[in-house]
Amino acid sequence: MRSPPTQPLDAAQVRAANGTLHVESRASLRPFNTFGLPALAQTLVHVKSEADVRRVVDHPTFGRASKFILGGGSNVVLTRDVAALVLKVEIMGRRLVEERADAWIVEAGAGENWHEFVAWTIEQGWPGLENLALIPGTVGAAPVQNIGAYGVELRDRFESLDAVDLVTGRSVALDAAACRFGYRDSAFKQHLAGKSVITRVRIRLPRPWRPVLGYLELERKVAETGMADPDARTIFDWVCAIRRAKLPDPARIGNAGSFFKNPVVSAEQCRDIIGRDPEIVHYPLPDGTVKLAAGWLIDACGWKGKTVGGAGVYEKQALVLVNRGGAHGSEVVTLARAIQESVYGRFGIRLEPEPVIV
Ligand code: EPU
User: Fold this and answer.
1) Are 349 and 265 within 8 A, CB to CB?
2) pTM of the model
3) Under the phi-then-psi rule, with left for phi > 0, alpha for psi from -120 to 50, and beta for the rest, what region is 340?
4) 59 is a domain residue
5) In this structure, is residue 218 part of a structural domain?
6) How many CB atoms lie within 10 A of CB 97?
7) Active site members
8) Which of 215, 259, 304, 319 to mutate to test the pocket of ligand 1 (most atoms within 8 A of CB)?
9) Is residue 353 in a domain?
10) Is the domain of 80 the same as that of 98?
11) Centre of ligand 1 from the C-alpha of residue 295, in Å
């Protein structure tokens, strides 16, 4: 059954059964997506609390409309105006929930900026998120795609989250099993997509803290500096420096991080490719399959620095597509398709986009 379209609204404050909602009509989404792509939301609701989510659910029109949940806009490619009701999650707050012998449990509102939250935990003396520094987006978006970098994924530090069901308005707490985390994947990209709003996330930071230094670029930092025993603050600084050197800052150059997932192939398929391209960057996985570096595959097809209209492939990392200025979402998608075709043509591998294409 299709949901009825949302009626445009003029009023900034919409009366709901149990309070008021901050609503905008024909709102520009350009400032709210890290690619900086132009698109309008017919109706946008600023969700500042769990109660706001329930107000939306109980609202006679909003309750029935199809919904689009927007966090920091770091994992979305907008190719057109959004007719669904846009819920912009702006729930704030961060706190230490519990200090246990084996862990610190910290919580943040879904609207908090992820990197600022990571920096705050380190400043407070609660280490464990340093490898995940400088990832663009919000705390609420982190579990949706199970963010990961430099040997740590969100699921390795996840305790639980609160979400509000968009049909019943009920709050639920979900543990890691219920979130069904996978590589850049979770229930929120699958059966719960668009169905529940993450409002708060709790992180478990194990005690005693142990550094995660196995990633090649961090091993290099250890060798370069001679610091065999770096503290969390040092690793945080290293990760920031590594990312700044090869990933574009979305505040200056619009992008959504890695555009494609690293593909996983069978050992047989990998052997076949190595036979033809001995240089291919690959990582054997415990289950016998092999992960390939999508950035390497794209680079090998000669895409670095190439453009389609305002969209381009970042010069320092072929896995990242960027807005060179004034790009339209359709240009990003055209570029992405051309990359997929050329990688398929040469290697027989289908690259899967990481961001959601709207
Ligand atoms: N490579 C190339 N050419 C390129 C890009 C990469 O040859 O243009 C090679 C590199 O030399 C390296 C290999 O490919 O040998 C892998 O590159 P890198 O270590 O930069 O990592 P990645 O696989 O490209 C992944 C994540 C990143 C994360 C880094 C560090 C995915 C899709 N991407 O990138 O995540 O920061 O590892 O852990 O898993 C993100 O998801 O937005 C993101 C940035």
Assistant:
1) yes
2) 0.92
3) alpha
4) yes
5) no
6) 15
7) 184, 258, 354
8) 319
9) yes
10) no
11) 6
